[in-house]
Specification:
By secondary structure, the chain is of the alpha/beta class. It contains 17 helices and 18 strands. It folds into 2 domains: about 325 residues, UDP-N-acetylmuramoyl-L-alanine:D-glutamate ligase; about 140 residues, HUPs (Rossmann fold, 3-Layer(aba) Sandwich).
């Protein structure tokens, strides 16, 4: 059974309390976009008239970025060169909230860079700048030192292996053994044809082609895939293998009962980095104590979202919740006020906060969770679409008010949601008369709309610190 919004919201909230350690091949993904209107007279190749260039974290760095956007605190390490691409990658990652980035520099190799040339939605060429030789023993030791330093702080370990030389067999085995000695799960995205390299891992996430290269498998049938996976798990003491089957979905087998989950139909714009999203989503869900089947469902929804976006994409909590069915909806102000009277008769402390909550992200989740701590019942007022446009400009909001309010209503610590049309929620506050009016720490209490009304009626106005680095604007610019 697929996630409903309330179940998804509870899992997304749990992720905000977890940490993941990611080790693997760090990359910079460059995208050069333009238009093709003619063929070169010099050779039968298209001429791309460049319009835009953008750079994004790729490989293990994209796994880490996906985790952070889900609210998971993430530690990332791997190998980069001492070059412009390495500096560009560091700059991109410096803007990712919740990430501790600790690369190891290798003067002897470039930072792995994939440059994709695109005409419209069509990729016409990819150029890779890389060295794939195994890293030297001293670099292995430096990476293992970083893992040892941070292992106790994390809930799960991810090995993002793109076969670029960072995760040697020696280092991979050392990390897995160290993690197991600390009772930490290890999820590995494998590129080696010899799955013995990942012996002892908790979960591998190959695609079907990678699984076939690691076995004698010729068939595409689920039964034959399950048999091949069971054999691999037995030979290499791997707990489970989740095979991604492209349009057919995912198949989990191993110590867990075999389970096939079909894909969710989506318009596919760009599959760049979709595998990273799957690995990050699985790791985040497992770190938050989801079952394997629940983690598969979460990853399937996440992958369906990112392939509909251009570039090496990630997703937000708000996008995920929008993809899940919900039986909760916003109330009218009149109905919410009547509910407040009922709660007041039960001597409940009523809290109130408000905001746009566009593309719900970890900063929003943190603020709402903190607001709920000081009251028995929390009401959230959400700006209408017209109100947001007046506040933030004609391109906002990214999601309509009905979606934003429904997503907020799904959160386990929110008791009621209303939508208001005005520029401020003053009329709503006056209708509710909450015991606690709560806003972010970027406000002074006396400047908060509704301060006079709440204080006059014996209530409190409180501010809570913000979770720095998270904003909808930053997500839209990412």
């Amino acid at each position: 059974m697929m996630f409903d919004a309330s179940k998804a919201a509870a899992l997304l909230d749990a992720m905000c309390h977890k940490s993941v350690l990611v080790i693997g091949d760090l990359m910079l993904d460059r995208f050069i976009d333009g238009q093709v209107e003619r063929i070169s007279p010099e050779a039968p190749v298209p001429v791309l008239s460049k319009t835009t260039t953008m750079a994004m974290p790729g490989g293990a760095a994209n796994v880490a970025r996906n985790l952070c956007h889900l609210g998971v605190k993430t530690i990332l390490t791997g190998i980069t060169g001492q070059d412009d691409a390495g500096r560009a990658l560091a700059e991109e990652l410096s803007a990712v909230a919740g990430l501790l980035y600790q690369p190891v520099m290798d003067k002897a190799r470039p930072t792995t860079t994939k440059t994709r040339f695109r005409a419209g939605a069509q990729q016409i060429l990819r150029v890779d700048d890389e060295v794939k030789d195994d890293i030297a023993p001293d670099l292995e030791a430096a990476l293992l030192d970083i893992v040892e330093t941070h292992l106790s702080q994390c809930d799960i370990v991810v090995l993002s292996d793109y076969a670029k030389g960072c995760l040697t067999t020696t280092l991979t085995q050392a990390i897995i053994k160290l993690a197991k000695s600390h009772q930490k799960q290890v999820i590995a995205d494998p590129k080696s044809h010899d799955f013995g390299k990942y012996q002892g891992a908790s979960l591998l996430t190959p695609n079907l082609s990678e699984l076939k290269q690691a076995t004698q498998l010729q068939s595409d049938s689920n039964d034959d895939i399950t048999a091949a996976v069971s054999d691999l798990c037995h030979r290499h003491q791997i707990d489970n293998i989740l095979t991604t089957l492209s349009a057919r979905g995912m198949l989990l087998a191993g110590t867990a009962p075999a389970h096939h989950l079909p894909t969710i139909a989506k318009d596919v714009f760009d599959v760049s980095g979709a595998g990273d999203t799957v690995v990050a989503s699985l790791a985040a869900a497992r770190a938050a104590d989801a079952s394997y089947n629940e983690a598969m469902q979460f990853a399937t929804i996440a992958a369906g979202i990112v392939v509909s976006k251009p570039g090496t994409a990630s997703l937000t909590a708000g996008e995920f919740l929008t993809a899940c069915p919900s039986d909760k909806s916003p109330l009218t102000v009149t109905d919410a006020a009547a509910l407040c009277e009922k709660w007041r008769a039960e001597t409940a402390i009523i809290g109130f906060t408000n905001g746009c909550f566009d593309l719900l992200h970890p900063g929003h989740l943190y603020a709402l969770r903190e607001a709920a701590k000081g009251c028995d019942r929390l009401i959230v007022a959400v700006n209408s679409d017209d109100s947001v446009k007046r506040l933030k400009g004609p391109t906002r909001p990214s999601q309509p008010d009905s979606v934003r309010a429904t997503n907020i209503a799904a959160l386990p610590f929110v008791d009621a949601v209303v939508i208001f049309e005005e520029d401020t929620p003053l009329s709503v506050i006056e209708a509710m008369t909450p015991d606690r009016l709560i806003k972010g720490g970027d406000y002074k209490a006396e400047d908060i709309v509704g301060y006079d009304h709440v204080i006059k009626n014996g209530g409190q106005v409180v501010t809570i610190p913000l979770l720095e680095g998270h904003s909808t604007t930053a997500i839209l610019q990412d």
